[in-house]
Specification:
about 325 residues; eight-stranded parallel β-sheet; globular; 12 helices
Length: about 325
């Protein structure tokens, strides 16, 4: 089973030690955090820089369908769109991944074979995370066996909010062990964590337990990714690498629907974590509708006009 970094072995030795470490992190200034996020969101990106940002954002999308009505046909259609987002322009980048429920992972893997687009699968009783650990681990095993390259797990928010940090830590460790070579994204559901201090604590808890990515949200609650909570998580991965040498990715998910929004988040990445995170190996957008707006804006930049409403597929 994976173990924590030696530098933090004492911090994870017991529930009390982990609590002391997490509550010893610097407190978050909400006003300052939100003001910085808002200020960075006003940066103006023009012409060639905007074209670059749009293509970069497309390449960072985890194109997602997580509905009870998902069918193999819908997943295959989404996979085709991920590989070839704009059939009229083959220079359009592919998306980073297609994200589906575990029972659709095999369908996605078959449709994406040889494309370079990853299969991401939500697991661990997504989105609520309310299941026994053995059930969650079976969910992960099934997804990996079906061809998932990445696992998006949800933490037990109830345990976290009750201060049972070691339980959450050990659960992430166990899931990480089941992932094998698949990368692990740990979802905090920031909209349910109540405070920025809790988001900072969850970020460090996930990274200590071996998360390859930390992710804001499931997209299934009222408050999902925001510039402020993403900025806070970017600060956490930056500081974690400074202390450990280990780089961890960030994935905002839910509520990011326009090219303008996506570019704002890329500015946050560049100005907070730095250029090393401006790559789809380290930054992703969890989205379903964002890709369509990016494609529309991309065509506008190349042709000087907006396309009609039938230009992009309706997912």
């Amino acid at each position: 089973m994976p173990t924590t970094l030696p530098a933090f072995a004492d911090a994870t030795a017991s529930d009390g030690a982990l609590r002391r470490f997490l509550h010893g992190l610097p407190g978050v200034d909400p006003v300052g955090l939100e003001a910085r996020a808002a200020a960075l969101g006003t940066r103006s990106i023009k012409t060639t820089a905007k074209a670059y940002a749009i293509d970069l954002a497309i390449s960072m999308i985890d194109l997602t369908t997580l509905e009870g009505a998902d069918t193999p046909g819908k997943v295959r259609a989404l996979a085709a769109k991920a590989v070839n987002p704009d059939p009229t322009d083959r220079t359009t980048p592919r998306t980073a991944a297609v994200c589906v429920y575990p029972d659709m992972a095999a369908t996605a893997a078959a449709a994406l074979a040889g494309s370079g687009v990853k299969v991401a699968s939500v697991a661990t009783a997504f989105p609520a995370g309310r299941a026994a650990l053995d059930v969650k681990l079976a969910d992960v095993r099934d997804a990996v066996a079906a061809g998932a390259d990445e696992i998006d797990m949800v933490i037990d928010r109830g345990a976290f909010l009750a201060g049972r940090y070691l339980k959450v830590y050990e659960e992430i460790l166990a899931v990480k062990a089941e992932c094998g070579s698949a990368r692990l994204k740990v979802i905090f559901e920031t909209g349910e964590l109540s405070t920025y201090d809790n988001i900072r604590r969850a970020s460090w808890l996930g990274m200590l337990a071996g998360a390859d990515f930390i992710k804001t949200s499931t997209g299934k609650v009222a408050v999902n990714a925001t510039p402020a909570n993403t900025l806070l998580m970017l600060e956490a991965v930056r500081d974690f690498r400074a202390q450990t040498g280990v780089q961890v990715g960030v994935k905002p998910a839910g509520g990011i629907r326009t090219s303008k929004d996506a570019v704002k988040f890329l500015v946050l990445v560049n100005e907070t974590a730095g250029e090393d995170w401006l790559d789809n190996h380290w930054f992703r957008f969890g989205a379903s509708s964002l890709l369509n707006d990016l494609l529309m804006q991309r065509q506008k930049l190349s042709t000087g006009r907006y396309s009609g409403p039938d230009y992009v597929t309706v997912d």
